[in-house]
Fold each of these.
Amino acid sequence: MISRIPLALLACGSFNPITNMHLRLFELARDYLHQTGRYQIIEGIISPVSDTYGKKGLASAKHRVAMAQLALETSDWIRVDPWESDQDGWTETVKVLRHHYEELLQSLQLKKESTRNNCSKEMVANGSLSPQHTVVPELKLLCGADVLETFRTPNLWKEEHIKEVVEKFGLVCISRVGHDPLQIIYESDLLNRYQHNIHLIREWIQNEKSSTHIRRALRRGQSVKYLVPDSVIHYIQQHNIYTEDSERNNEGDQLQPLKLQSTKLNALD
């Protein structure tokens, strides 16, 4: 029997605030990837972007990480990781993937060494441990189809970074209303070349309430119960996070990747 590939899923984004749909992406992806017979999901990682990203209405990373931690209290396999949000500046997604892949390799190496130390020499000698230790783990970027479409936004992604994401790591992409991932892949020579490493998953039970919709409802005093975990709703109310004033955060600013690209182009002129 061929061993399944240990696989971790990484979701990057604002999580402003985290919603039930963000959590559903992980469950959908795990079910699908397990059903392929190729993978064994070992963990899910939520990585909130840093405050320097420049997105309009972006709440403090301190609050976004705290809300994600509350939302994941009932999960036994998904965790929030503050590494990206703790960086001094905005970190490109491919660099976040590299960081977490190194962390994954180190973690599995420690587990491997611990298992070897706890097993008898006879078990090691007869090869009973070899299958699970010879399989190279993988890390894939988990996203909605709307993120796949951002690959077409000029200057938002570097082409070499898109190539590294889809070639070295791979994508797990969940369908969203109004986006056609197959068309996006078809119209991109790069994505088409690596489509074997892009897993498209159809969500049959649609919930299209985005964080933007959630913030709008909160500003208007409307209920977001059953769209956001109760613990997160309580935290938002306790800290008065989403208001008309907070929605003006970074108003008029460019997203950091666009700003950096614009600076580079001006320097060349």
Note: The longest strand covers residues 39-48.
Amino acid sequence: MKSKKRKTLGMKAAAAPGIGCGCCNSDLPLHTWLEQSPMENSDSRTEVVLLACGSFNPITNMHLRLFELARDYLHETGKYKVVKGIISPVGDGYMKKGLISASHRVAMARLATESSDWVEVDDWESKQKEWQETIKVLRYHQQKLKRLHSTNSFDKVTPLSKAGRKRKRETGSQLPAGKAQPQAKGVPQVKLLCGTDILESFEIPNLWRAEDILEIVANHGMVCITRAGNQAQKCIYESDVLWKHKDHIHLVEEWIGNDISSTKIRRALRRGQSIRYLVPDFVQAYIGQHNLYTLESEDQNAGVVLAPLQRHLREAAKD
């Protein structure tokens, strides 16, 4: 009987990873190996929250696709774990031509993300009376995560979940007997998710403050989805600031061509053409219900100087 027991234990140990193989210490007892092996919550990857700012006028399937592409890319590096995605529509104070009310744009974005278990819409930016620089939106969400991290010990060790979704383990619940208490994670990094048109816009005079660009790439980082014809590498090469922090700028190639844009969606709507399969069905229905994107709406803010340019002109006048 004793010999049979020894044989059984030996088979179990051999079946465990790292036990009895030539590349590991086969003399370790099974309980010692279990203590030294990584636990299920010992993920050492940096947690990331992807933040997309923009007009979303209207939100399209391509906007949603950006999040999936970025998450796949970051996970494949083995260095990052994307725990949340945030869509932050710009406020009405941006003064962009053809920009409809933020209330409609937020509502459509929420309809578009209803089926997602990790991408959500935040309306803080859209509710501000004045246009907010992108860096201020990044700071807001980073500080919000820091407050959550410092006040909610449960979220220190549990990936962020979308509002309205049930957690796998409720706050205060006990881990099964014998399970080690997971180590607390640091505050997730908020990274700016965008198309490479944002990189190109850095070169437009008076559109961005130099110090804002520096803070974005140095303190947060960017994930840029590239399209055919975009010269993202050239933008980085020609900017000393971007070149210095190029390791913080992740360029993600979109190999499945997709040229959907909000501008083209609005043009099709003005001409009475179908936009089905270009935007989520709920978004299409919402646009039809509220009769959005007409010839009149496209003239909204016509002749008005874009808010970033207005602010820089005021600052230049003061100097």
Note: The CA atoms of residues 90 and 125 lie 6 Å apart.
